[in-house]
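User: Structure please.
Assistant: Input sequence and predicted structure:
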Amino acid sequence: MALIKKDNINQFGVCETYYRITGINLNLHFKFCDITVSGYASKDARLQNKEPLNVRTIRAKWTDEEFGAYFSPRIISDNSIYTMAYEYIKQNDYFKDCEMDM
């Protein structure tokens, strides 16, 4: 599972189009989740185990209701934590125009 962002040039002037979640730190007590996303030049670069061009962490901090919509025990029992994290980051401005790559 990954996100594809077409025609994206990163801050180094390099094409970076393939993004996958490489880490999730879920804090149930304070109701936040740090989602680490790694960006690659392409899906092929990722499949060849190349190093990511960029690594960014998105902090998802919610109200109790918002947190429950993504990471309540009921939601997680029905979905992968990664599926829910991808759903959340697709709401983020940077990833809004991305397509899912299953």
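Residues 2-94 form one domain.
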